[in-house]
Amino acid sequence: MLLAGKNAIVYGAAGQVGTALSTAFARAGARVHLAGRTARTLEDLAERLRGDGGQAEPSVVDALDETAVDAHTDAVAATWGSVDICVSVIDIADAQGTPLAEMSLEDFERPVRIATRSTFLTARAAARHMVRRRSGVILTFGGDGGGEPMRDYSIGGLQVALNAVDFLRRQLAAELGSYGIRVLGLHTGGVVEGLPDDFGARQEVTDMIVGKTMLGRAATFADVGNVAVFAASDLAASMTATSLNITCGAVAD
Q: Does pTM surpass 0.90?
């Protein structure tokens, strides 16, 4: 198993992306520390992963709470001996469909604040333990890696938030590389199977995402999990400060 013996912390573990990552990590042999704000959903996920033969430890943690994140990470390291993989995929509560010129400041700022704060706090907490062991992998998620604006649909502060996280990823990689810590991004350009059925612009957004791809389909949650396992494993030991393109050809590197 590619991640046997590794401890992986997933913040936002019970969400759609978090579930995909947690499931893939557990299947690859990692002990997955499921962090989120709702105990019941975390327990349900932990039970499912254990039922499939995986190792899972649920904990109620708010990824925006500095004290809570630090305490949880310290507890994982103290109890299980290491923090080897860390990723935050909490919901950043973005407002979409309203043109920027008509959007409130609060709606614009919210995703930027949530994305940068959660990524910084969780990465910092993990890095402090990874530095001592001179190894570890920090992953970020979201966007298409290209930084191109949306021309036909307004996504508010989301693109700004994702590009801010992307630069944070590169800066973390630059500062932590000498300690053997790798920092990688996972870019999908959008996972359409995650769009809610009651989302008014669902078909419009699906057509926009799929229409940009070369493969004629968008990435799936299973794709995200599989690539994350590779990125976190020793097979990707030479990779850092870069993003893994899971856009099905929507972005040509």
A: yes
